[in-house]
Amino acid sequence: MQPQARTQIETGTRTQIRTGPGTQPQTGTHRPGAVIFVLCLAGFMAMLDVFVVNVAFPAIGDSFHSASLADLSWVLNAYTIVYAALLVPAGRFADRHGRKRAFQVGLTVFTTASLACAAAPGLWWLVAARVVQAAGAAALTTASLGLLLTVLPADRRAGAVKIWATSSSVAAALGPVVGGAVVLVSWQCVFLLNLPVGVVALVAARRLVPDLHDPRAARATSVDAVAVVALTAAIAAAALGLVKGGDWGWQGPATLTAFAVAAVAAAVFAVRTKRHPAPVIDVALLRVPSFVWANVTVLLFCTAFSALFLSVVLWMQDGAGYSAIATGLAILPGPVSVPLFAALAQRLVRRISAGTVIALGNLVFAAGALLLAACASADVHYWPQVLPGWVLTGIGIGLALPTMMAAATAALPPERAGTGSAMVNTGRQLGYVLGVAVFVAIIGTLGAAKPGAAPHTAFQHGWWFVAGVAALSAVTGLGVSRRD
After folding, report:
1. 0.85 cut: is pTM over it?
2. Per residue in 173-187, pLDDT tens?
3. How many domains, in total, are found in the chain?
4. Contact 387/336 with Cβ under 8 angstroms?
5. In a 3-state reduction of DSSP, which class is residue 17?
6. What is the rounded distance in angstroms from the CA atom of residue 481 to the CA atom of residue 408?
7. DSSP secondary structure string, 324-390?
8. Which range marks the domain in which residue 362 is found?
């Protein structure tokens, strides 16, 4: 046998990994089902935190009653901004230094930062802890998806990616109920939930997940730190301008300065991406049409999804007067439908193109948002006004999201698995930032929180925005013509 940089020989359930010429092979137990479970468990934990914190959002506001809605939104936005900015660098770190190592480091940081969130004495301490938490989440997310794409046999990767993507939908189903129940004790307990899950995932990863290294990725040039800073500044400044524009005035100097900073930082990022030998965005991957279209579609879809999720939580608690636990139970039917229709989507892509399934899911999602807008009124009635539209959006998510993730990542080469999956998740998190920021801007501009205003009017505008973005995502989704 010719010496190879990395040779993987599978015999039964045992895997031998050669890390280079002249080295002794490492042998470890390779059980695909167990590996998928452990990696999805960590991704589930990171996404559960997002949905639980959304439900806890009003309770956090009650603790920091002097903070405005715009300031409170940074509990969500600080996490998603840093998460989005660090995903690609984290993917490069995983590719260079080992995905299992990156996964374990990310889990440790995320779990420890969760404890710091629970102990935060003030709003901005909480925001700072969320920043650290996001750094850990970026590492564990990219490493877990990268491991799925390299550790598993080729014929199991697409299915594993769909399971990985669907696990976030399960988190969406459990998050509101678990969060609503825990918030009855305190919002701090929301973050303490991560501790036992993180410890179990860390121990299981150490025992069950193989440690594969790719020397080709390890020899790559370090990622461009200037571009990372520029990307973070662009996202943060744009989000700041959107969130605070209603308070500062859309033509006020502070708002215009924020958008100017975002534009300059984005230009710096674009120039560095074009000239740096190891750009943050892997230019080679941008030549794969299905990958590009899937990423654009993920960005648009997640913008619509994050705006819708936060809006329904606030609508149920502020508009209908529901408690946190009642809100969690009210939200449950939508996410519960997601894994059911994700399974249907997996069957459909065997008969029709992935792009068609994605477009169909986005159109159903848009129809749900339009139904919510059409039924909204000053007097909120859950069963006829909220539930039908909310379930429709869940069906749309199940059809669209797992299919988008699989279409974007299934064909990635092994040496770019971490970086490519990071780019997909960067688009996903950018969408979450934009969705929350635009929704807060809409209800802030229309004065939904002011005495005497008509809250349902502002929410209707928000849901029209959601429907429009989802419809646009259906159009871009048609570009994903590849079958999985």
Report:
1. no
2. 677 788 888 888 999
3. 2
4. no
5. strand
6. 11
7. HHHHHHHHTHHHHHHHHHHHHHHHHTTTS-HHHHHHHHHHHHHHHHHHHHHH--SS--IIIIIHHHH
8. 30-223+278-477
